[in-house]
Amino acid sequence: GAGVSQSPSNKVTEKGKDVELRCDPISGHTALYWYRQSLGQGLEFLIYFQGNSAPDKSGLPSDRFSAERTGGSVSTLTIQRTQQEDSAVYLCASSLAFGFLQPQHFGDGTRLSIL
Amino acid sequence: AQSVTQLDSHVSVSEGTPVLLRCNYSSSYSPSLFWYVQHPNKGLQLLLKYTSAATLVKGINGFEAEFKKSETSFHLTKPSAHMSDAAEYFCVDYSGGGADGLTFGKGTHLIIQP
To answer: Does B99 contact A108 at a Cβ distance shorter than 8 Å?
Structure first.
């Protein structure tokens, strides 16, 4: 497709389980961004990739969160030992070039619910 | 620390009437300001952005915003609301310095009455 694709669209899991969220950016977009949207915190920036590199991981909420990007394309956000406060919508965006002034194209998000 | 304040959590207007969504920023440096729209169960879509060029910025779907430095404001307007405008709107400030310079407003939920 032409847009950013995220999967799954919805995920319900039990506390303590690991989850993996996937983002397939627009073809040719070198930059990729992950955000979290929750009722309590609003929109939060998590991490960005320039190509396959993530220079700044300080936005990740805890060491249970990790992200990788391979082949300059698909990215996965992994949450280990999920907690209820991880329940949120996780949004992915991509842009042709890196930079927060660049137009970002967003996917529809993954709705994560931790029971 | 910089902040973005969206003054109204909810705004309700009748179809065909003007829309005003208010945003104030606090950056001490020259900010770059954005408005995004989010329809239910969708990601964010860029409506418009200000990056120190013209202070009146025109965006998609008939929206525009005016940067007023003296008032530290970047309010979003539309002359005539359409039912399809019902959504959540986010004002965003980017003041440089990487991800630390990115600040999101809490959002304004726009309701369009028929």
So the answer is: no
